[in-house]
Design goal:
The structure holds two protein chains of two kinds.
Chain A (H helix, E strand, L loop, with lengths): L1 E10 L3 E11 L4 E5 L6 H8 L7 E6 L2 E2 L7 H5 L2 E4 L11 H11 L5 H14 L15 H13 L5 E5 L7 H16 L3 E5 L3 H7 L2 E6 L2 E6 L1 H6 L4 H10 L1
Parallel strand pairs in A: 3-8, 3-9, 6-7, 7-8
Antiparallel strand pairs in A: 1-2, 1-4, 4-5, 9-10
Chain B lengths: L1 H15 L4 H34 L9 H15 L2 H12 L6 H26 L3 H9 L4 H31 L11 H12 L3 H31 L4
The chains are: A alpha/beta, B mainly alpha.
């Protein structure tokens, strides 16, 4: 579904963050990416929908080379949901408008359809009563559940999560992970950058360990945590578990 | 009570005899007219220039439009407004004899440079995450600006825009150079007419002060109302 070939990303000032990432994501997979900060895992994720344009390398999505400048990236992004560490709900819009803005403005749904769909999704995360509230009045956990709903309203083929629980108070992490688990069970293809090792173990179909801008190790969650092969991963796991 | 009498005589000479207060009132009219037209031109021009300056190519480099915007802002900020006014009056628009028009245009173009920076700062102050979220949903750059960034930037921009208008009102005190009888010029001319500088000058200063004080109070109210809607 997503093929990544020799991906490099260099930021200004000789900051070489990605140094040749190769990976192939199959439909329905839940890829969990872990690694120390500065390992390039967030940059890798942000490259997948070109929020960050890679310096070199290729990304293919559903048989389309999206790193090609001729590709209409806006069209591609309609099929790739993204959830951010800091939620990034639109502060000037109600929850309902947050969810329906893109489907309506991109003419994918009528206003009625979009609202109906939004309410259905809001019910799924038990936040239907917040439809007319503004993001400012919500807790972090609520905001992130709404952010997930906002992405789902576009009926994406894949969902990207960029440290979705890192900015949350500890007692709110659970409610967001719960929604993500349900989403995983429904068959969604997911790529999740996280520090939640429990989630990686429980939900992931593959766990990737990134360090120094490359994928150092990948394995099934069970093997990943039980038998880490590289010394770097062993050291990392000893620190975080 | 001699001194009280002499003060009254001065006030009488400066403002009341021959209905002289009418001249000041007309002066206020000219001042506000120029400031208002210039304000409107400034906001339109400044907004356009702000977007020109913010425009980037696909590879992240600034566009030609952005360079042009920078040059414009540099020139306006780097030269005195009196000179800009004289250049417009005697050189660029030498054939135009309408002082109000030339003054409004000059101050509009002048104010545009400052408004451009205000608008640009207001847009940049909107969290980058808002744009990223919009783009990640497949919205175009334009749609993201139109529905998400600009509504939020508007709130950031209103208070400094109000300040810019206040500055503009005071700046227009130099339109006497192109023959307009604004408040300052009326006071200045009165000074030589009645051989008393104190009363007309202080009097007109008080008028400026009151106009601007009223605007400041209105602005503060507006600002408070905008902030209230932040934690709705």
């Amino acid at each position: 579904m997503i093929i990544v070939k020799d991906l490099h990303k260099e930021f200004e000032g000789n900051n070489h963050v990605l140094r040749g990432v190769n990976y192939h994501i199959q439909p329905g997979e839940k890829i969990v990416v872990v690694g120390p900060s500065g390992s390039g895992k967030s940059t890798f994720l942000r490259c997948l929908n070109l929020l960050e344009r890679p310096t070199s390398g290729e990304i293919w999505f559903d048989g389309q080379k999206i790193t090609d400048y001729k590709t209409d990236i806006n069209k591609v992004r309609q099929h790739m949901g993204m959830v951010f560490q800091h939620f990034n709900l639109f502060n000037n819009l109600t929850i309902m408008d947050n969810i329906t803005l893109a489907p309506i403005k991109l003419k994918l749904m009528s206003e009625e359809e979009a609202r109906e769909n939004a309410l259905k999704l809001l019910n799924r995360v038990n936040l239907a009563e917040k439809a007319d509230a503004y993001p400012g009045s919500l807790s972090g956990g609520q905001k992130q559940r709404i952010a997930i709903v906002r992405s789902l309203a576009m009926n994406p083929k894949v969902m990207l999560f960029d440290e979705p629980t890192s900015a949350l108070d500890p007692e709110m992490v659970g409610e967001v992970l719960e929604v993500m688990k349900e989403l995983a069970d429904s068959g969604m293809t997911m790529v999740v950058v996280t520090h939640e090792m429990g989630f990686a173990r429980e939900v992931g179909t593959k766990v990737l360990f990134m360090d120094g801008g490359i994928i150092v190790e990948e394995n099934t969650p069970k093997e990943f945590f039980a038998n880490p092969r590289s010394a770097r991963l062993q050291e990392f796991l000893s620190k975080v578990l | 009570m001699d001194w009280l009498n002499s003060i009254w005589e001065k006030i009488d000479a400066a403002f009341i005899t021959e209905n002289r207060w009418m001249l000041y009132l007309k002066g206020v009219g000219v001042t506000m007219e120029v400031a208002l037209f210039a304000g409107i031109i400034g906001i339109i021009l400044g907004t356009i220039v702000a977007f020109m300056k913010l425009s980037v190519k696909k590879n992240g480099k600034p566009t030609l439009l952005s360079h042009i915007a920078n040059i414009y802002i540099d020139i306006i900020r780097g030269t005195p407004s009196v000179l800009q006014l004289l250049i417009m009056w005697f050189v660029v628009l030498a054939s135009c004899k309408n002082g109000i028009l030339v003054a409004s245009l000059t101050f509009g173009i002048n104010s545009g440079a400052y408004v451009a920076e205000i608008v640009r700062a207001g847009i940049l102050a909107v969290d980058k995450g808002q744009t990223e979220a919009g783009r990640s949903l497949g919205l175009t750059q334009f749609q993201t600006m139109r529905y998400i960034v600009i509504p939020q930037a508007f709130k950031n921009v209103l208070p400094p825009l109000g300040n810019e208008f206040i500055v503009l009102i005071k700046e227009t005190a130099i339109v006497g150079y192109v023959g307009l009888s604004d408040l300052t010029r009326v006071a200045n001319q009165m000074t030589s007419k009645i051989y008393d500088a104190f009363t007309p000058l202080i009097g007109s200063a008080v008028v400026y002060f009151i106009i601007i004080k009223i605007l400041t109070i209105l602005l503060a109210k507006l600002e408070r109302r905008l902030r209230k809607s932040d934690n709705r």
